[in-house]
TrEMBL record:
<feature type="domain" description="Carbohydrate kinase PfkB">
    <location>
        <begin position="8"/>
        <end position="289"/>
    </location>
</feature>
<dbReference type="Pfam" id="PF00294">
    <property type="entry name" value="PfkB"/>
</dbReference>
<dbReference type="InterPro" id="IPR011611">
    <property type="entry name" value="PfkB_dom"/>
</dbReference>
<keyword id="KW-0808">Transferase</keyword>
<keyword id="KW-0119">Carbohydrate metabolism</keyword>
<keyword id="KW-0460">Magnesium</keyword>
<dbReference type="GO" id="GO:0005829">
    <property type="term" value="C:cytosol"/>
</dbReference>
<keyword id="KW-0547">Nucleotide-binding</keyword>
<dbReference type="GO" id="GO:0046872">
    <property type="term" value="F:metal ion binding"/>
</dbReference>
<protein>
    <recommendedName>
        <fullName>Ribokinase</fullName>
        <ecNumber>2.7.1.15</ecNumber>
    </recommendedName>
</protein>
<keyword id="KW-0479">Metal-binding</keyword>
<dbReference type="GO" id="GO:0006014">
    <property type="term" value="P:D-ribose metabolic process"/>
</dbReference>
<dbReference type="InterPro" id="IPR002139">
    <property type="entry name" value="Ribo/fructo_kinase"/>
</dbReference>
<keyword id="KW-0418">Kinase</keyword>
<comment type="similarity">
    <text>Belongs to the carbohydrate kinase PfkB family.</text>
</comment>
<dbReference type="GO" id="GO:0004747">
    <property type="term" value="F:ribokinase activity"/>
</dbReference>
<dbReference type="GO" id="GO:0005524">
    <property type="term" value="F:ATP binding"/>
</dbReference>
Length: 296
């Protein structure tokens, strides 16, 4: 994996939240009550996770998002500043509280319910105000915890300036042709292909969007079609103890490798490596590796 001396410039447009993680012996089924052995809060939100993930790996990162005018919003801002993420385009709203996510975690698996709240107050005007930073960026990352109209606007703006765009298609929604045509890479979960593409045959999806769609599953494996053959990579060096945040970590690693001019194969391998690191610590951001973990 090549790591050039140029510092990548990345814009992340997306959500930030505080995750309340409840540890249980088993995930509750419908109408069931279970007891939690612990309740802890962590920094989260797919956008913020990717902003921290790419900043720790050495990128200059601008995060565009929205928090509430409340103590949780202040905590998120402080955390991002500490992580060297530029917060000049984080907006505060008095219309909604800061986003939260309620996570029930058991034996590594997690069920997540997100309350977007302030994240839904991010508008296309906010994206527009960062226009000149899009012009000088190398790559833009989006996910689906802010309004789809904002995601679409962001993708169009990035493409207008010829920038690379990556989409982590989570939480899953059906993606329209415009989005799929304009993004350079899409990261999707194997269990959500039908929702995202209207097609649940993995091979069909991968062949149609070769070198563009990267499908991940719970075993930290990633598969894509390179135009000739299916490419499958798995990193199970570290046992995935905490699976929350692995998709964000993969996307961060993939994006960094791409910015440094690596092949898609190298991008996938590095993404898997970054994802493996996050899965050994609790919280979506806790275990995200830093550049010096890989390169001196
Ligand atoms: O992708 C993991 C994230 O999903 C939810 O948005 C939680 O905030 C968590 O941090």
């Amino acid at each position: 994996m090549n790591f050039s001396s140029e510092q990548p410039k990345i814009i992340v447009v997306g959500s930030s939240s505080i995750d309340l993680v409840l540890e249980t012996d088993k995930l509750p089924s419908s109408n069931e009550t279970v007891l939690a052995s612990s309740s802890e809060s962590y920094f989260g939100g797919k956008g913020a996770n990717q902003a921290v993930g790419t900043a720790r790996l050495g990128a200059s990162v601008y995060f565009i998002g929205c928090v509430g005018m409340d103590p949780l919003g202040q905590q998120i801002m402080r955390n991002l500043v500490n992580e060297n993420v530029n917060v000049g385009f984080i907006y505060e709203t008095d219309q909604e509280a800061t986003g939260t996510a309620y996570v029930t975690a058991s034996n590594g698996d997690a069920v997540i319910v997100v309350v977007p709240a302030a994240n839904k107050c991010l508008t296309t005007e906010h994206i527009e105000s960062a226009d000149k930073y899009f012009q000088t960026s190398d790559l833009v990352l989006v996910q689906l915890e802010v309004s789809l109209s904002v995601v679409e606007y962001t993708i169009k703006k990035a493409k207008k300036y010829g920038k690379k765009v990556g989409l982590y298609a989570s939480p899953a929604v059906r993606l329209n042709a415009d989005i799929l045509d304009n993004v350079d890479f899409v990261v999707a979960k194997s269990t959500e292909l039908y929702t995202i593409f209207g097609e649940d045959q993995r091979e069909e999806v991968l062949r149609k969007y070769f070198n563009k769609v990267f499908v991940r599953d719970d075993t930290n494996s990633t598969i894509y079609f390179d135009g000739t053959e299916m490419k499958y990579y798995r990193n199970d060096k570290d046992k995935a103890v905490y699976k929350m945040g692995m998709g964000d970590a993969f996307t961060s690693g993939f994006a960094i490798a791409l910015c440094h001019g690596n092949s898609l194969e190298e991008c996938v391998k590095f993404g898997n490596e970054v994802s493996a690191r996050v899965s050994v610590k609790k919280g979506s951001q806790t275990g995200l590796p830093v550049q010096s973990d890989f390169f001196s």
